[in-house]
Amino acid sequence: MKRILTIFAAILIAVISASAQESKREKVSHFYTTTEFNMTGADFQGWGKPDFGSYGFTVSPGYRFNQHWAVFVPVNADILLLNRQSTKNFVEQGTLGLGGSYTLTMKDHKALEFVVSGNSTYIKSDLNYFKAKAAVNFGFHGLGGTPYVGIGCSYLSPYGNVANDKVMIEVNLGFTIF
Questions:
Q1: What's 90's domain CATH number?
Q2: What is the pLDDT of residues 48-72, one digit of tens each?
Q3: Range(s) of the domain holding residue 144
């Protein structure tokens, strides 16, 4: 495990340095990729005890048209946390979709990014669904790699009569790789 983390850190450092050199050329339109950890929760049964939620990892390759507008393809690996009273209370699932963003650049390399995306499951499972997301990410742009934190709202609509539609608060921690 330690060797894998070391290799991952070396690749990440190489990507950040290449990205920093690319940003010096002031190239406006370009391809980029973000990686993100996200958590959601809904139907709270008391303080800190959600009855439904999810956490997952997202990789989003995309294309930035200019300094403001971009499109991307989010590929998610999610674990849905279902009703805690049931015998099986989680479902592992993947989604694939399309999204867009608008970035508002501020002083000192800070930026707000407004993100909208829609995803659908692509693996047959116990729970298949459509998920829409609207979020605002705050990050440090123009520094090579771009770390960010975001908060937003997710709408989850299961296919069939498996569960009710859910509106959930979502928190994102991410990093733009290039």
A1: 2.40.160.20
A2: 555 677 888 999 999 988 888 999 9
A3: 2-176
